Amino acid sequence: METIERKIVRDTFWKFLIPTVTSSLALSIISMTDLIIAGNMIGQDALTSIGVALPVVILAQIFYALFGMGGAILISTRMGQGDRQGCSRIFTASLISAVFFSVIVAVIGSIFLIPITELLGGTTGSGIKGPEGYIGVLFLGFPLLVLSPVMITFLRNDNEQHYAMFCVLITGILNVIFSILFVKAAHLSGAGIALGTIVAEGVCCVLAGLKLFNKNRMFCLVAFWKEKEETLISLSGNIARQGAALAVIFASQILLTIEINRLLNIHGGSEGIAIYGILKYLINFLFAIFDGVTGSMQPMLGIYYGEKEEENVRETARIGMISMFVTAVFFSLIAALGGRLLCALFSVTEQGMVKETVLAFRVLAVYAPVVAFTTFLNAFYRCTGKDIMAFCLSLLDNLIFGVASVWFMVLLMGMRGAWCGLLVGGSLTAVFIISYCLIRHQGLLLLKKEEFVRPEGEFHAVSEATTDKLPALLQGVEQYCEEMEIDINTTFYINLVIEELVVNVVNMAKDNKKSLNYVDIRVVPVAQGEAKSVMLRVRDNLTQFDPSSSDVGNIAAYTDGMLSETAEDDLLSGSINELGLGIVKGIAKEYQYRRTIGYNNFLVII
Fold this sequence. Notes:
The chain is an alpha+beta fold.
């Protein structure tokens, strides 16, 4: 029988999944649009130029991984621990670091444009139509290529999934419009396509900033020169460490792409580079879907793992793994059966090239489920504190096995070995991780019971937010207080606080149209110096409501009988009992609220 917790996790995952996958797909389509426009409006030379420039795009993804995904993972964990100020420091350090390093890359790339183009496997000297024109514009706008996905990631972590989706969709539409405009009207050829992308990403940064740089957000910009707990350098290093495993994947892809482009120059010429460019953009499209799934998992796993909720961690992993495999199988069918249609999409018409491209798509069809397996585990390890394991998996999959397999297979099979090598490398990685887990006698998730040890003597209950469930819930809390020998006065205050908070949840749930409205309560004794206190956490999945921001409850007037009957009736008449919330604030030593992954979290120390 399905538990309430499992249903809550599933509902939360699907709520994140649709906008997150849509955003990731839109980002991928932005990149793929460049290839489609180039093939249809310019020709094969432009396809080759974009294929050569792919490492520059991947380089931007490295900085996104380090300071975007790394910061998001760290923020989710801090949210689970209730450290709101820490979240703001992480947010600020991530943005500063992303801008700083991307500007350095932009300057270096612009100065050494010609040598870099030749290193990537391109030939220069053909003016604006050559690969250096496309790459040069990418370097000029490199900070925007980095900052845009970083800001989108923080929007998702701050419960703005739908707004993030809106920003990315607008960016995709503008990318198409500007690219066509610059190619046709301004006659900028390949450089015009790159310029269209940069301008669209700039618009995305502006749109994202309108929401992110708002003081009412869960995290905001802070002045690091006033901070004493963590320096900018140390925190930036910690953030980068969280995203290092994902950054290794992208860095390895740069090395792999450079190697393949150089090998194909020898064994396949410009045709081989063009085919690999198409194949790589399709792989990026597949990874965009995977990123949507892992992007949905990431904040959930971070919160649940930080709060040591093992059942929710495992349920999130189960749903995520199923989603990725279903996606991979669907993608495989399209790649295996729709090869010629895909060729037509990219304007590949020469029969010999069509034949080789269709064969590459079929290899990709087999590769998709394999890469779904390794990508899921890598993402799961990153989000559950197994940085070293994720880092090693990234090295094996994308560098050691990946580069070696491609090199060997190209020497063995020629041009076709490039895509066959990707399949061999991914398969070797999957075999390695399965063997490692069997040797360690652990499941694939590598979770240990000691990672989820809850505080001793904790009370935990999850219940539907309905009037008929409320008495049993309160009775369970009262019985817990008796068993823990909590004194009468503290027990009275605990019951009062829980009753007031839970009654508000129940009242709000009456007008909520969700299939399941719930309240999740944890009660645990805590030590504050020599005094003994009790911590209460009340969580619900209702509309965002921060009672700590409400200026209500003149407790002194209420307790002294100075509140008029009319005023009291007004306070008690709404679905939110503001008087009751005022009482809670009056008797609590500490009172905190945070909104995380669609949940209201009330934390009270008595």
